[in-house]
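To: structure desk
From: M.T.
Subject: fold request, one chain
Message: Could you run this one when you get a chance? Sequence is below, nothing fancy, just the single chain.
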Amino acid sequence: MSRVHDPRSIDRSMTRLIALVLFCLLAWGTQADARSFTDAGGRTVEIPDKITHAWPAGPPAESLIYILAPEKLAGWTHRISPESASFMINNYGALPVIGRLTGRGNTANLEAVIAAKPDLVLDVGTVGPTYVSLADRVQEQTHIPYVLIGGSLLDTPKLLRTAGNVLGVSARAETLARYTEEALIDLQKRIATVPAAERPKAYMARGPRGLETDVRGSINAEALEILGAQNVVAPGTSAGNLADVSLEQVLAWQPDVIVTINRDFMSSVMADPAWQGVKAVKDKHVYLEPLYPFGWVDEPPGVNRVIGIRWLAKLLYPRLFPEDLRAETKRFYELFYQQAPTDAQLDQLLGKAG
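Reply: Done. C-alpha coordinates follow.
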Protein backbone atom coordinates (compact mmCIF):
# COMPACT_ATOMS: atom_id res chain seq x y z
CA MET A 1 0.00 0.00 0.00
CA SER A 2 1.55 3.28 -1.05
CA ARG A 3 2.14 6.00 1.54
CA VAL A 4 0.44 9.35 0.89
CA HIS A 5 2.50 12.48 1.83
CA ASP A 6 0.76 15.62 3.04
CA PRO A 7 1.95 18.47 0.76
CA ARG A 8 1.72 20.90 3.70
CA SER A 9 4.11 18.74 5.73
CA ILE A 10 6.58 18.72 2.85
CA ASP A 11 6.35 22.52 2.57
CA ARG A 12 7.00 22.94 6.32
CA SER A 13 9.99 20.59 6.19
CA MET A 14 11.44 22.41 3.20
CA THR A 15 10.94 25.77 4.91
CA ARG A 16 12.80 24.56 8.01
CA LEU A 17 15.61 23.16 5.86
CA ILE A 18 15.99 26.41 3.95
CA ALA A 19 15.95 28.38 7.20
CA LEU A 20 18.66 26.13 8.66
CA VAL A 21 20.84 26.50 5.55
CA LEU A 22 20.43 30.28 5.60
CA PHE A 23 21.29 30.41 9.29
CA CYS A 24 24.45 28.38 8.71
CA LEU A 25 25.46 30.53 5.77
CA LEU A 26 24.91 33.72 7.76
CA ALA A 27 26.83 32.38 10.73
CA TRP A 28 29.70 31.29 8.51
CA GLY A 29 29.68 34.63 6.75
CA THR A 30 29.81 36.53 10.04
CA GLN A 31 32.81 34.51 11.20
CA ALA A 32 34.53 34.83 7.83
CA ASP A 33 34.02 38.62 7.80
CA ALA A 34 35.51 39.15 11.27
CA ARG A 35 38.97 38.56 12.68
CA SER A 36 40.61 38.67 16.08
CA PHE A 37 43.04 41.50 16.73
CA THR A 38 45.12 42.02 19.86
CA ASP A 39 45.54 45.75 20.44
CA ALA A 40 48.17 47.73 22.34
CA GLY A 41 46.18 47.39 25.54
CA GLY A 42 46.40 43.60 25.35
CA ARG A 43 42.71 43.39 24.51
CA THR A 44 41.48 40.82 21.98
CA VAL A 45 38.96 42.57 19.75
CA GLU A 46 36.84 41.06 16.98
CA ILE A 47 37.06 43.52 14.10
CA PRO A 48 35.36 43.42 10.70
CA ASP A 49 37.52 42.13 7.88
CA LYS A 50 36.51 45.17 5.84
CA ILE A 51 36.42 48.63 7.42
CA THR A 52 34.27 51.18 5.61
CA HIS A 53 33.95 53.84 8.30
CA ALA A 54 36.30 54.34 11.25
CA TRP A 55 35.46 56.65 14.16
CA PRO A 56 38.54 58.44 15.60
CA ALA A 57 38.53 58.62 19.40
CA GLY A 58 40.88 61.63 19.40
CA PRO A 59 43.00 63.91 17.18
CA PRO A 60 45.98 61.52 16.71
CA ALA A 61 43.59 58.87 15.40
CA GLU A 62 41.85 61.27 13.02
CA SER A 63 45.14 62.42 11.47
CA LEU A 64 46.22 58.79 11.11
CA ILE A 65 42.98 57.71 9.41
CA TYR A 66 43.10 60.75 7.12
CA ILE A 67 46.70 59.98 6.15
CA LEU A 68 46.15 56.28 5.51
CA ALA A 69 42.59 56.12 4.18
CA PRO A 70 40.71 59.44 4.12
CA GLU A 71 37.66 57.80 2.53
CA LYS A 72 37.20 55.76 5.75
CA LEU A 73 37.22 58.75 8.14
CA ALA A 74 33.82 59.11 9.84
CA GLY A 75 34.40 62.78 10.73
CA TRP A 76 36.58 65.24 12.62
CA THR A 77 37.00 65.60 16.35
CA HIS A 78 37.13 69.40 15.96
CA ARG A 79 36.37 72.04 13.36
CA ILE A 80 38.89 72.10 10.51
CA SER A 81 40.06 75.62 9.71
CA PRO A 82 39.86 76.89 6.13
CA GLU A 83 43.66 77.07 6.09
CA SER A 84 44.00 73.39 7.04
CA ALA A 85 41.24 72.37 4.64
CA SER A 86 43.14 73.97 1.75
CA PHE A 87 45.90 71.36 2.24
CA MET A 88 43.43 68.45 2.05
CA ILE A 89 42.23 66.51 -0.96
CA ASN A 90 38.65 66.14 -2.19
CA ASN A 91 37.09 68.60 0.26
CA TYR A 92 37.63 66.22 3.20
CA GLY A 93 37.94 69.24 5.46
CA ALA A 94 34.16 69.59 5.15
CA LEU A 95 33.44 66.27 6.89
CA PRO A 96 31.18 66.69 9.94
CA VAL A 97 32.53 67.44 13.41
CA ILE A 98 31.79 64.36 15.54
CA GLY A 99 33.65 65.32 18.71
CA ARG A 100 36.23 63.36 20.66
CA LEU A 101 35.98 60.51 23.12
CA THR A 102 39.40 60.97 24.75
CA GLY A 103 41.50 63.74 26.22
CA ARG A 104 40.60 67.14 27.57
CA GLY A 105 37.37 68.59 26.25
CA ASN A 106 35.90 65.27 25.12
CA THR A 107 32.68 66.23 23.35
CA ALA A 108 31.39 63.09 21.63
CA ASN A 109 28.58 61.09 23.20
CA LEU A 110 27.96 57.39 22.85
CA GLU A 111 24.52 57.93 21.33
CA ALA A 112 26.18 59.72 18.42
CA VAL A 113 28.67 56.87 18.00
CA ILE A 114 25.87 54.29 17.95
CA ALA A 115 23.77 56.33 15.51
CA ALA A 116 26.71 56.69 13.08
CA LYS A 117 27.20 52.89 13.00
CA PRO A 118 30.96 52.94 12.34
CA ASP A 119 32.73 49.62 11.77
CA LEU A 120 35.39 50.53 14.29
CA VAL A 121 36.45 53.07 16.93
CA LEU A 122 40.20 53.75 16.72
CA ASP A 123 42.32 55.37 19.43
CA VAL A 124 46.00 56.20 18.91
CA GLY A 125 48.56 57.47 21.40
CA THR A 126 49.49 56.75 24.99
CA VAL A 127 48.05 53.43 26.17
CA GLY A 128 47.42 53.05 29.90
CA PRO A 129 44.78 51.77 32.32
CA THR A 130 42.55 54.82 31.79
CA TYR A 131 42.45 54.34 28.03
CA VAL A 132 41.94 50.58 28.33
CA SER A 133 39.04 51.14 30.72
CA LEU A 134 37.47 53.69 28.37
CA ALA A 135 37.84 51.34 25.41
CA ASP A 136 36.19 48.49 27.30
CA ARG A 137 33.32 50.70 28.45
CA VAL A 138 32.62 52.21 25.02
CA GLN A 139 32.80 48.82 23.33
CA GLU A 140 30.47 47.25 25.91
CA GLN A 141 27.90 50.03 25.63
CA THR A 142 27.95 50.47 21.84
CA HIS A 143 28.82 46.92 20.70
CA ILE A 144 31.28 48.54 18.26
CA PRO A 145 34.89 47.22 18.18
CA TYR A 146 37.28 49.67 19.88
CA VAL A 147 40.99 49.31 19.05
CA LEU A 148 43.95 50.91 20.86
CA ILE A 149 47.24 51.46 18.98
CA GLY A 150 50.36 52.87 20.65
CA GLY A 151 51.46 56.21 19.23
CA SER A 152 55.09 56.75 20.22
CA LEU A 153 56.96 58.79 17.61
CA LEU A 154 59.84 56.32 17.47
CA ASP A 155 57.31 53.53 16.91
CA THR A 156 55.61 55.32 14.01
CA PRO A 157 56.65 52.71 11.39
CA LYS A 158 55.04 49.97 13.51
CA LEU A 159 52.01 52.20 14.12
CA LEU A 160 51.51 52.73 10.39
CA ARG A 161 51.82 49.02 9.59
CA THR A 162 49.44 48.03 12.38
CA ALA A 163 46.83 50.62 11.44
CA GLY A 164 47.23 49.76 7.77
CA ASN A 165 46.44 46.14 8.58
CA VAL A 166 43.38 47.12 10.64
CA LEU A 167 42.04 49.53 8.01
CA GLY A 168 42.81 47.26 5.07
CA VAL A 169 45.40 49.54 3.41
CA SER A 170 48.62 47.63 4.14
CA ALA A 171 50.36 48.52 0.86
CA ARG A 172 49.98 52.26 1.41
CA ALA A 173 50.96 51.91 5.07
CA GLU A 174 54.15 50.05 4.11
CA THR A 175 55.21 52.88 1.78
CA LEU A 176 54.77 55.47 4.51
CA ALA A 177 56.41 53.25 7.15
CA ARG A 178 59.54 52.84 5.02
CA TYR A 179 59.80 56.61 4.48
CA THR A 180 59.49 57.13 8.24
CA GLU A 181 62.10 54.46 9.07
CA GLU A 182 64.60 56.06 6.72
CA ALA A 183 63.94 59.52 8.19
CA LEU A 184 64.35 58.36 11.79
CA ILE A 185 67.54 56.41 11.11
CA ASP A 186 69.09 59.33 9.22
CA LEU A 187 68.20 61.87 11.91
CA GLN A 188 69.44 59.78 14.80
CA LYS A 189 72.67 58.89 13.01
CA ARG A 190 73.56 62.55 12.48
CA ILE A 191 72.52 63.72 15.94
CA ALA A 192 74.61 60.99 17.57
CA THR A 193 77.67 62.98 16.49
CA VAL A 194 76.68 65.95 18.69
CA PRO A 195 78.17 65.86 22.22
CA ALA A 196 75.58 66.03 24.99
CA ALA A 197 77.00 69.35 26.24
CA GLU A 198 76.34 70.96 22.86
CA ARG A 199 72.70 69.94 22.61
CA PRO A 200 70.30 72.84 23.16
CA LYS A 201 67.94 73.30 26.08
CA ALA A 202 64.38 73.59 24.78
CA TYR A 203 61.00 74.77 26.02
CA MET A 204 57.60 74.05 24.44
CA ALA A 205 55.32 77.09 24.80
CA ARG A 206 51.57 76.51 24.69
CA GLY A 207 48.70 78.91 25.16
CA PRO A 208 48.57 82.66 24.37
CA ARG A 209 50.90 83.49 27.29
CA GLY A 210 53.32 80.64 26.56
CA LEU A 211 53.11 79.38 30.12
CA GLU A 212 51.51 76.02 29.51
CA THR A 213 54.13 73.48 28.50
CA ASP A 214 54.97 69.83 27.87
CA VAL A 215 56.63 67.81 30.60
CA ARG A 216 59.77 65.87 29.75
CA GLY A 217 58.91 62.32 28.68
CA SER A 218 55.37 63.17 27.57
CA ILE A 219 54.09 62.19 24.14
CA ASN A 220 53.68 65.89 23.32
CA ALA A 221 57.40 66.60 23.81
CA GLU A 222 58.73 63.58 21.91
CA ALA A 223 59.67 65.47 18.77
CA LEU A 224 62.14 67.64 20.68
CA GLU A 225 63.52 64.88 22.84
CA ILE A 226 64.31 62.29 20.15
CA LEU A 227 66.41 65.01 18.51
CA GLY A 228 68.53 65.26 21.64
CA ALA A 229 67.17 68.58 22.85
CA GLN A 230 67.07 68.89 26.64
CA ASN A 231 63.49 69.60 27.65
CA VAL A 232 63.85 71.99 30.60
CA VAL A 233 60.52 70.93 32.14
CA ALA A 234 61.34 67.95 34.34
CA PRO A 235 58.92 65.19 35.32
CA GLY A 236 57.16 66.08 38.56
CA THR A 237 56.48 69.64 37.44
CA SER A 238 52.93 68.42 36.89
CA ALA A 239 50.96 65.27 37.61
CA GLY A 240 50.15 64.93 33.91
CA ASN A 241 51.78 65.49 30.50
CA LEU A 242 51.08 69.23 30.52
CA ALA A 243 52.11 71.77 33.14
CA ASP A 244 51.20 75.35 33.97
CA VAL A 245 54.37 77.21 34.89
CA SER A 246 55.41 80.75 35.79
CA LEU A 247 57.61 83.11 33.83
CA GLU A 248 60.01 83.04 36.79
CA GLN A 249 60.48 79.32 36.22
CA VAL A 250 61.20 79.87 32.51
CA LEU A 251 63.73 82.55 33.43
CA ALA A 252 65.41 80.11 35.81
CA TRP A 253 65.52 77.38 33.15
CA GLN A 254 66.97 79.71 30.46
CA PRO A 255 66.10 77.60 27.39
CA ASP A 256 68.23 78.10 24.27
CA VAL A 257 65.24 77.41 22.00
CA ILE A 258 61.49 77.95 22.37
CA VAL A 259 59.05 76.16 20.09
CA THR A 260 55.43 77.28 20.26
CA ILE A 261 52.18 75.98 18.82
CA ASN A 262 50.35 79.25 19.54
CA ARG A 263 50.29 82.08 17.01
CA ASP A 264 49.19 84.68 19.56
CA PHE A 265 52.20 83.94 21.76
CA MET A 266 54.53 84.01 18.75
CA SER A 267 53.23 87.41 17.66
CA SER A 268 53.75 88.99 21.09
CA VAL A 269 56.72 87.33 22.77
CA MET A 270 59.53 89.16 20.97
CA ALA A 271 58.14 92.57 22.01
CA ASP A 272 57.11 91.55 25.53
CA PRO A 273 59.55 93.11 28.05
CA ALA A 274 58.82 90.35 30.57
CA TRP A 275 60.32 87.73 28.25
CA GLN A 276 63.46 89.63 27.26
CA GLY A 277 65.51 87.98 30.00
CA VAL A 278 64.99 84.53 28.46
CA LYS A 279 68.02 83.45 26.38
CA ALA A 280 65.93 82.03 23.51
CA VAL A 281 64.07 85.34 23.17
CA LYS A 282 67.25 87.45 23.34
CA ASP A 283 68.87 85.27 20.68
CA LYS A 284 65.69 85.26 18.55
CA HIS A 285 65.45 81.48 18.71
CA VAL A 286 61.67 81.32 19.10
CA TYR A 287 59.87 79.31 16.44
CA LEU A 288 56.22 78.73 15.55
CA GLU A 289 55.57 75.20 14.34
CA PRO A 290 53.98 74.89 10.87
CA LEU A 291 50.31 74.16 11.45
CA TYR A 292 48.62 72.85 8.29
CA PRO A 293 46.82 70.58 7.78
CA PHE A 294 48.08 69.26 11.15
CA GLY A 295 50.76 70.56 13.48
CA TRP A 296 54.33 69.50 12.82
CA VAL A 297 55.44 69.09 16.46
CA ASP A 298 52.16 68.60 18.29
CA GLU A 299 48.45 69.28 17.79
CA PRO A 300 48.11 66.39 17.48
CA PRO A 301 51.03 64.21 18.62
CA GLY A 302 50.53 61.85 15.70
CA VAL A 303 52.04 60.61 12.45
CA ASN A 304 51.97 64.22 11.19
CA ARG A 305 55.12 64.82 13.30
CA VAL A 306 57.31 62.90 10.86
CA ILE A 307 57.92 66.06 8.82
CA GLY A 308 58.16 68.11 12.01
CA ILE A 309 61.24 66.31 13.27
CA ARG A 310 63.04 67.22 10.05
CA TRP A 311 62.04 70.86 10.52
CA LEU A 312 63.17 70.83 14.16
CA ALA A 313 66.44 69.12 13.32
CA LYS A 314 67.28 71.89 10.85
CA LEU A 315 66.50 74.54 13.48
CA LEU A 316 68.45 72.86 16.28
CA TYR A 317 71.46 71.71 14.22
CA PRO A 318 71.57 73.83 11.03
CA ARG A 319 75.08 72.74 10.03
CA LEU A 320 74.11 69.05 10.30
CA PHE A 321 71.01 69.47 8.17
CA PRO A 322 71.77 71.69 5.16
CA GLU A 323 69.11 70.11 2.90
CA ASP A 324 66.39 72.10 1.17
CA LEU A 325 63.43 71.69 3.50
CA ARG A 326 60.99 72.95 0.87
CA ALA A 327 61.77 70.02 -1.40
CA GLU A 328 61.45 67.52 1.47
CA THR A 329 58.18 69.12 2.59
CA LYS A 330 56.74 68.74 -0.90
CA ARG A 331 57.80 65.10 -1.00
CA PHE A 332 56.28 64.39 2.43
CA TYR A 333 52.97 66.07 1.55
CA GLU A 334 52.72 64.15 -1.72
CA LEU A 335 53.24 60.86 0.12
CA PHE A 336 51.31 61.40 3.34
CA TYR A 337 48.59 63.89 2.34
CA GLN A 338 48.38 62.92 -1.35
CA GLN A 339 48.58 66.56 -2.41
CA ALA A 340 51.76 68.52 -3.04
CA PRO A 341 51.72 72.07 -1.63
CA THR A 342 51.96 75.00 -4.01
CA ASP A 343 54.83 77.47 -3.72
CA ALA A 344 52.46 79.85 -1.91
CA GLN A 345 51.52 77.11 0.55
CA LEU A 346 55.19 76.32 1.15
CA ASP A 347 55.70 80.02 1.94
CA GLN A 348 52.75 79.77 4.34
CA LEU A 349 54.31 76.77 6.09
CA LEU A 350 57.97 77.73 6.11
CA GLY A 351 58.27 81.39 5.21
CA LYS A 352 59.70 82.62 1.94
CA ALA A 353 63.24 81.73 3.03
CA GLY A 354 62.26 78.14 3.78
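Reply (cont.): The domain at 31-180 is CATH 3.40.50.1980 (Rossmann fold). Let me know if you need anything else for the meeting.
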